[in-house]
């Protein structure tokens, strides 16, 4: 069986089912902000109205290292936030902990928590 895969340079190449796939040391994480809602259900333009984004943004961070150390460091950062006395009274953090565990998410995180994560990805 033949299949097409993407290489670490974004190029496609053909491979067979006998060719082992390896996890590369290039990892890309994407996120969006805003939305692509241009029209209401009635087909009326709503861009610029209250509650509708004026823009849509895609962001990407690329790591050139194995995935497991990235995951491990992010989990360590999450635990640092949860165990930091400075953040003990932050409702969004406490809610995530109660509901199954804290994770980073810029929409919910206070600026100080966002900075911790931004400092990590800037390395």
Q: What's the overall average pLDDT, rounded?
A: 81
The general outline is extended
Q: Kindly state the number of beta strands.
A: 4
Largest sheet: 2 strands, antiparallel
Give the SSE string.
Answer: EEEEHHH
**Relative strand content:** 15-25%
What's the helical proportion of residues? 25-40%
Question: Quick summary of this structure?
Answer:
By secondary structure, the protein is α+β, with helices and mostly antiparallel strands. It contains three helices and four strands, in the order ββββααα.
Give a description of the structure:
There is one protein chain. By secondary structure, the protein is an alpha+beta fold. It has a domain at 66-123. It has helices spanning 67-83, 91-98, 111-121; strands spanning 2-6, 12-16, 26-34, 56-64. Strand 1 (2-6) and strand 2 (12-16) form a beta hairpin. The N and C termini lie far apart (41 Å). The relative contact order is 0.11.
Question: Tags for this entry?
Answer:
two-stranded antiparallel sheet; 3 helices; 123 residues; 23% strand; alpha+beta
Write the layout of secondary structure elements.
Blueprint: E1 2-6, E2 12-16, E3 26-34, E4 56-64, H1 67-83, H2 91-98, H3 111-121
Antiparallel strand pairs: 1-2, 3-4
């Amino acid at each position: 069986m033949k299949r097409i895969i993407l290489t670490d340079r974004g190029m496609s190449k053909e491979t067979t089912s006998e060719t082992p796939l390896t996890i590369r040391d290039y990892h890309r994480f994407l996120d969006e902000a805003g939305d692509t809602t241009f029209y209401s259900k009635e087909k009326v333009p709503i861009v610029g109205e209250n509650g509708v984004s004026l823009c849509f943004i895609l962001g990407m961070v690329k790591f050139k290292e194995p995935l497991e150390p990235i995951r491990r460091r992010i989990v360590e950062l999450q635990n640092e936030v949860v165990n930091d006395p400075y953040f003990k009274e932050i409702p969004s953090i406490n809610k995530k902990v109660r509901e199954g565990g804290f994770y980073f998410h810029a929409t919910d995180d206070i600026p100080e928590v966002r900075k911790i994560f931004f400092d990590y990805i800037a390395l």
